[in-house]
Amino acid sequence: MATSIQRIGVLTSGGDAPGMNACVRAVVRSTIQRGGEAVGILSGFEGLIEGYFRPLAAHDVSNIIQRGGTILKSARCPRFHEAEWRRIARARLSEAGIDALVVVGGDGTFTGAKIFGEEHGFPIIGTPGTIDNDLFGTDFTIGYDTALNTALEAIDRIRDTADSHNRLFFIEVMGRDAGFIALNTGIAGGAEGILIPESKTDIDGLVRHLENGHITHSSSIVVVSEGDDEGGALEIAAKVKERFDKYDTRVTIIGHIQRGGSPTCADRVLATRLGVAAVEGLHQGKHGCMAGIQYRDVIYTPFEQAIKHHQAMNPGLLELAQTLSCYY
Ligand code: F6P
After folding, report:
1. pLDDT digit of tens for each residue in the chain (328 aa)?
2. Cα–Cα distance between 282 and 262 in angstroms, integer?
3. Are residues 153 and 252 in the same domain?
4. What residue numbers bound the domain in which 215 lies?
5. CB of 103 closer than 8 Å to CB of 307
6. Phi and psi for 324 in degrees, rounded to 5?
7. Which of 27, 51, 264, 324 gives 20 to 30 Å between its CA and that of 85?
8. What are the backbone dihedrals phi and psi of residue 119, each rounded to the nearest 5 degrees, phi first?
9. What is the CATH number of the domain that holds 151?
């Protein structure tokens, strides 16, 4: 279905992710290429309520594809939970003559977008921008690959010092509700333990594993997802230490370093494809959904499904990590 969409607003919302800028660039340039106009909305839904709008020409998005963060700024916006503020946001869009919106963000962003779109019958489409990789309907989210590589580099560096001092390190990576970063960096970093929210943590089992390892291994690394059911790295380290204290133990929380930095090639390409797909989707009358890539193709998944169903984690990977970290 062809539409009369002319002016497209774009915003980034929630936790920033490397590649958001590449996505904004793609949205702006593909909108203009189709004869339309692009408007940047600053600070996510906050800017929508406040009317922080900035028309964007093709050259305004030059030189940003390689930059981390988001030139549009991002925010989490509690006011957008309230219908009255959403009504004000709708009025701002009308005043600015904006016909449709592209929102780049994660599950919180899409929850707000879904309610807003349905409530006001407004065309809105999302692209998955979050380092957590926790959205259904796309193999990867924008920013995830960069965050993986940033976290892995940190783990490798910690292994150097852990090994020199015969230490046990607990390294906490991001992922409030999802263990994708922990699982994959744990495998790639040869971790002796990987603790993720998707699988019940067995502290006694971990202790037995580390005890065995202490005989043959000079260092051990346990990668902990911040959302683990037994707590973050500090808490887990304390629980392990109570039961087994042969190792000199340290804790590192990698934190927001994982959210910054120049996006990897994979993230730039993904963000670019999805930005274009979002604009194409709007022109085809696809609303209330997220553009994602599965296998090699663009697909559109309703917001509700993208948010509700986590992308499935491969249980075999955790098993594989456990097998390979066995001490012989
Ligand atoms: O959702 C992305 C994310 O980086 C999570 O992994 C993390 O739990 C959260 O954002 C941190 O949010 P904030 O920057 O608001 O502390």
Report:
1. 456 899 999 999 999 999 999 999 999 999 999 999 999 999 999 999 999 999 999 999 999 999 999 999 999 999 999 999 999 999 999 999 999 999 999 999 999 999 999 999 999 999 999 999 999 999 999 999 999 999 999 999 999 999 999 999 999 999 988 999 999 999 999 999 999 999 999 999 999 999 988 777 789 999 999 999 999 999 999 999 999 998 999 999 999 999 999 999 999 999 999 999 999 999 999 999 999 999 999 999 999 999 988 777 888 998 888 888 765 5
2. 29
3. yes
4. 145-259
5. no
6. -75, -20
7. 27
8. -60, -40
9. 3.40.50.460
Expressed in angstroms and rounded, the spacing between residue 176 Cα and the centre of ligand 1 is: 7
* Residue 129 DSSP code: B
C-alpha separations of 198 from 114, 182, 227, 229, 263 in Å: 26, 11, 9, 9, 27
- 321 domain-assigned: no
* Closest listed residue to residue 181, CA positions, set 272, 265, 76, 256: 256
Q: Has residue 322 been placed in a domain?
A: no
Pocket of ligand 1 (CB under 6 A): 15, 106, 130-132, 174-176, 226, 259
Cα-to-centroid distance, 128 and ligand 1 (Å): 15
Task: Tell me the one-letter amino acid at 226.
Answer: E
Can 132 be counted among the known catalytic residues?
A: yes
Same domain assignment for residues 17 and 113:
yes
**Domain ends where: 243, 259, 275?**
259
Catalytic residue of the set 16, 99, 132, 145: 132
